[in-house]
Each structure stands twice: as C-alpha cells, then as structure tokens.
Design brief:
The complex is a heterodimer of chains A (334) and B (268). Chain A has helices at residues 44-51, 73-79, 95-105, 110-123, 139-150, 169-184, 196-202, 220-226, 248-260, 283-294, 309-318, 321-333; strands spanning 6-15, 18-28, 33-37, 59-64, 67-68, 80-83, 157-161, 188-193, 205-210, 213-218, 230-237, 265-269, 272-279, 299-305. Chain A is of the alpha/beta class. Chain A has a six-stranded mixed sheet with strand order 6-7-8-3-9-10, sandwiched between helices. Chain A has a four-stranded antiparallel sheet with strand order 2-1-4-5, covered by helices on one side. Chain B is built from twelve helices and no strands. Chain B has helices at residues 3-7, 19-39, 45-67, 70-101, 105-111, 118-126, 128-144, 151-178, 182-198, 211-219, 221-235, 240-266. The chains are: A alpha/beta (334), B mainly alpha (268). The complex binds adenosine-5'-triphosphate and magnesium ion.
C-alpha cells in the first residue's frame, strides 16, 4: 500500500509519424489531486489512456498503485475509475440504466446495482432526470453522470480527462467541489485540463505537457517561481496616456527602460497609465522610485507580483519546447 | 499520505474473474442490447420483411417449376429461406458492433475489470432475439401457405438454425472489430453472404446444377444446415447433417470468437 498512485517512466505512444506521447515521466503520490496541463493535442488523453490500460505504450513503463499497466492490466482496471474526455456513458440508455449496467458489470447483484445507482443519482443530483433519455441531458448533467459511473466500484485512483471542459462557471465550481470531496474521502485524482486556473485551484502538483513531453513539473508555486522574474506594475498620474515625449508617462517609461533594461507594457487607465515590466531584482525598485521622485512623477500605485500561471504556461509552451523545458525541469526537480 | 488509500472504503465490487463472471457480465451486456432495441424496434425491420417476402416470392415463383406445386415445394423452400434469413440477420451483428464500438461508452467498457469477451458476447446474445423473430415468422408464413412440418422437428430445427446463426455472427463480429468503418463491414459481409446462401441447395435441387457447381454446393456448410432442417421438419429425426451442422457451428465459434476478442482488444 506504500506504492505511489502513479509511477510512469518514459511513456511513448506513436500514431503513424506522430509521437503523440514522447517520453513522459510522472510521479503521483496517493491522496492528492494531480493536474496534467497542456494545450490541444499535447498528449493528455493519450497519456491517460495508457495509464488506464486502454492503450498499450510503445515504449516505457507505468505502474498504478504498484501494478504494471501492461502485465497486470486486469488488476489496474479494478483499481482505477476513468471519466473520459468524450462521454463514456451509453447515450441510448437512461442515467439509471447506465449506472445499473456498470454496477452489474462490476459484479454487483441486481438489487445491489440498483441501490448503488440510486445512491449515486442522489449524490450527483440526478434523481429527477434518472429515467430521462440521455440525449436530453445538458452537458453538466452528462459530465456528472460520467463521473458517477466512475465511482461505482469506489476506485482508489480516479482519472478525469478534462472534467470541466464545456461547463458553465457555476457547474464548474460544483464539479470542483465534487472532486475535492473525493480526495477528502481518500481517493487520488489525476485530472487533465486546459485551464490554468483550474490546475491552480485544484491540483496539489501540476505537470505541464506540450507536444508529448513534460516541460515542467511541480506545485503551482514552483511553476510560477520557475519562470524567474517577478513583474512590476506601476500606475502614474497623467493627463493622458500619450503625453508626448515630455510628460510623466514618457519619463517613467524611460526610467524603467534604463534601470531594468526592459521595455514596459503600457495600459491606459482613467487618469494616467499603467506600466508593467518584468523585474529581476527588488533593488531596482528603490532606484526607480528615487529617479521618479526627482523627475516629479506622481506614482499612484506600485505593486509587484509573481507571474500568473497563464504567463508561465505561455512561457513554457509558447516559444518552442526546447528553450522552455531544460531550465525549468532542473529547477523544479532540484 | 499513503494511509489515505486505506481510509477509502474497500471497493464495493471485487474484480470478478473466471467463467461465471464472464457469463454474468455477458448477460448484463445482453440486457443493454435488449434495452437499446426496445427503444428503437424499427431495427428489426429486416428480420420482419425478409422471411415473409422470400417465402411468398420464391414459393409462387419456383414452386411449379421445381416441385410441380407451391405446396409440394414448401418442405424444400421453408428450410432454405429459414437458413438464409438467419444468416443474413447474423451479418447485422458485425455492422452494429462496429457502430457501437466507435462510441465513447466502449472506452469505459475497456477500462472496466471485466472479461474482454463480455461486450462482444453480450451484443451477440441480444441478437438472438432477432433470430427467434426471423425463425418464427418464416415458419408461420410457411404454415399459412400450407406447409405441415413435424412439430418437434420444427422446434428442434429452429434451435439448430438459431445456434448456427449465432456461430456465424462471430465471423461478422470479427469483421466488425477489424474493419475501419461500418460500411466496409457491410460490403465484406455481403460478399460472403451471397455465394454462401444462393450457391447452396436452399432453393433448387442440386441435381439440376452443372457439375462444377455441385461440387461447391455439396461442401457449402449451408447445404448441410438446410438438409438437416429438411430432415428434422419432415420426420422429426435428424441424420448426419444435424451433426455436421452442429460441429461446423462449434468450429466457427472456436476459431472466430478468439479472433474477434483479439481484434477488439487491439482496437485503439
Ligand atoms: N487514435 C489516434 N490515432 C491517431 N492519432 C491520434 C490518436 N489519438 C490521438 N492522436 C493524436 O495524438 C496527439 C495527442 O492527442 P491527445 O488526444 O492525447 O491530446 P490532448 O492533449 O488530449 O488534446 P485535447 O486537449 O485536444 O484533448 C494529437 O496530435 C492527436 O491528433
Ligand atoms: Mg484530450
């Protein structure tokens, strides 16, 4: 029972000439939410399918709760619940019939399967729609049913492939609560997402994958820190954002450029402008403030922040995997 | 951290293995198939039309020429139409399986700790209903037109033909899991179906055929099934052909069921 939830080494899956998954390593501890973050076509679904024994890896190996996904596939299947990206429930059956079917397949008796189905319908607020044809279900209801179906056997490890894609904000929050509750009850959850805030909010650790490779791994904070610089946000008063080459905005701009060596990004605000620039050292801030006071610039607001996960994501996947992957991997794994 | 897995209640359903589990999982899958057709009964159109149409059409078309009268032709014809209708119905299995497998729910079936054969066997079991309908309709149609079979033989031959059709459906299931699309399955199935059903003793006496064709017709397994049904419905007792038909069916299942399951598991 001390085995980690997932231990994957060098997973590879090739479709024709396309290396959909190209050497993925994952270490997921039990009892946590692990997020796999990546853009369309990054290889998230393919990775999950290999871990859930739906696809066999072309190279590499993976163990789920200590069991090899290829050699002990049947055992692995009994330990995991999978909620696929595309509705993995039967469209032609009602919600209740779906749950009864999966319960029967998992070895429950007719009575047991019905009891379990009713309990899950209740838990996921689907009682009213239980006998309605699935074709008339909303996206949120379908997603909930999908998740309910994965929980029949109460698996210790649950895979959720993009559980909230296509859900409205309220339904998404409900899904987040459900996922948190599962983990509170002792399950381990591996979820994929394209949404940074989702990974940020839910996941204890995150792997960012791009073009079949893990380009960064760590907690949300690790990832943000790994992008290095902080950002400086400075709001200055002015009669307009474009005050010629002589006003306070232009002076601030010049000062930032000279002290940090970076060109600030300028955003007009109601009575002035907001300037944002990456910052390497906090010492530069005091130097900047002194310079602005001597030039008579009125600073409305000053703040520094670490980059958002959005900025991290862009930095990691935006410009070529090569420049992004090496430094981050070293830093985070160290 | 690791104690977390322990606090989670033990799985409600232990992963069942073995033959008993495989059978009950197949039955659950068959239940799924039956619920589905109960929602769309128009799926049964083919097994409703063919038995009635072919018995009527061939009866009045060939009856006089082959046997001197429609009534005299029926003991030959009804078994022929019966076998043909059921084998045709069994091809539907492959097409439907192909369509079914492209749906997301099959991802879940594959991720469950169930016998790999269950999703296939279940669908095939549910199709038995299709064969029962075709059998009953063909026989009733024959009786309306004046066919008077041995009752026990009719029941026995019905069961025999249904079993053979079920065996044949494994061949089409194999095509179903191997082919890229449902229409490809349909094409290949008809390519096999036509020589198998028409180049047999179903509709005309073998002696009227050219010699080279007689050779094929005599080794065609369909001919043996048709002969077995004729013997059973005529006198209530079966000869060697019943044995051959059963043996053939068992061989087909033994070969194609594992092939179909293998193809199913390989499919990504
Ligand atoms: N069965 C398949 N046959 C061929 N190529 C495939 C197959 N499945 C996936 N691919 C390809 O593999 C790559 C990775 O796909 P995958 O579905 O794993 O990405 P993803 O990260 O889940 O993307 P999304 O966010 O769009 O769901 C894509 O380029 C996709 O086109
Ligand atoms: Mg995907």
């Amino acid at each position: 029972m001390n085995a980690p939830a997932i231990e994957a080494r060098g997973l590879v899956k090739v479709f024709g000439a396309n290396r959909a998954v190209d050497g993925v390593d994952l270490d997921v501890a039990t009892g946590a939410i692990y997020g796999v973050l990546g853009p369309n076509g990054a290889g998230k679904t393919t990775t999950i399918k290999m871990l859930a024994t739906l696809l066999s890896p072309d190279a590499g190996s993976a163990r789920v709760l200590g069991h090899d996904v290829v050699r002990e596939a049947h055992t692995v299947r009994s330990l995991v619940g999978l909620t696929g990206q595309y509705a993995s429930v039967d469209e032609d059956l009602s919600a209740r019939e779906n749950l009864v079917l999966f319960g029967r397949l998992l070895g429950l008796g007719i009575r047991g399967a019905k009891t379990k189905a009713d309990a899950l319908l209740d838990e996921f607020s689907l009682v009213d729609a239980a006998t309605r044809p699935l074709k008339k279900f909303s996206g949120g209801m379908r997603r909930r049913l999908d998740l309910a179906a994965s929980l029949i056997a109460q698996p210790p490890l649950i895979f959720l492939d993009e559980p909230t894609t296509g859900l409205d904000p309220r339904t998404r929050l409900q899904m987040w609560d459900t996922i948190r509750r599962l983990v509170a009850e002792g399950s381990t959850v591996l979820l994929t997402t394209q949404y940074l805030d989702e990974a940020d909010q839910l996941a204890d650790r995150i792997a960012v994958i791009d073009r079949g490779r893990v380009v960064a791994e760590g907690t949300a904070d690790d990832l943000k820190r790994s992008v290095g610089t902080q950002s400086l946000h400075l709001t200055v008063a002015s009669h307009g954002p474009h005050d010629g080459g002589t006003g306070p905005v232009a002076a601030t701009r010049r000062a930032i450029r000279e002290i940090t060596g970076q060109e600030p990004v300028l955003t007009p605000v109601s009575d002035g402008a907001r300037l944002t620039a990456p910052l390497d050292s906090a010492a530069a801030v005091s130097e900047l403030l002194v310079r602005l006071r001597t030039s008579g610039v009125e600073v409305r607001e000053l703040s520094m922040s670490r980059p958002t996960l959005d900025e991290v994501f862009l930095a990691l996947t935006g410009h070529g995997a090569q420049d992004a992957e090496t430094p981050v991997l070293e830093e985070v794994h160290a | 951290m690791t104690t977390a897995t322990l606090t989670r209640p033990a799985p409600a359903a232990a992963p069942a293995t073995g033959l008993g589990a495989a059978v009950s999982q197949s039955i659950a899958m068959a239940w799924r198939g039956l619920v589905k057709v109960s929602r769309t009964p128009e799926q049964y159109a083919d097994v409703l039309i063919q038995p009635i149409l072919f018995t009527l059409m061939f009866g009045y078309l060939f009856g006089g020429a082959v046997a001197g009268s429609v009534k005299g032709y029926l003991p030959q014809l009804v078994p022929g139409v019966l076998v043909m209708a059921l084998i045709t119905a069994s091809t539907v299995t492959g097409v439907q399986l192909r369509e079914d497998m492209d749906k997301g729910v099959f991802d879940r079936f594959r991720s469950l700790p169930i016998a790999r054969v269950a999703p296939l066997a279940g669908g095939l079991l549910a199709d038995t209903v299709r064969y029962v309908i075709a059998t009953v309709l063909t026989m009733v149609m024959g009786v309306i037109m004046g066919w008077r079979p041995n009752a026990v033989g009719a029941v026995a031959s019905g069961l025999l033909v249904i079993f053979c059709a079920w065996a044949m459906s494994w061949i089409f299931a194999f095509f179903g899991v191997s082919a890229r699309s449902a229409s490809a399955v349909q094409g290949v199935s008809f390519l096999i179906l036509f020589p198998l059903t028409f180049l047999s003793n179903s509709f005309v006496p073998v002696s009227t055929l050219p010699g080279w064709l007689q050779g094929f017709v005599q080794v065609n397994p369909m001919s043996h099934v048709v002969t077995a049904v004729r013997e059973l419905t005529a006198g209530g007792t079966g000869g060697a052909d019943v044995g051959w038909a059963l043996l053939g069916a068992v061989v087909v299942i033994a070969v194609f069921a594992p092939l179909a399951v293998r193809g199913y598991m390989r499919k990504v």
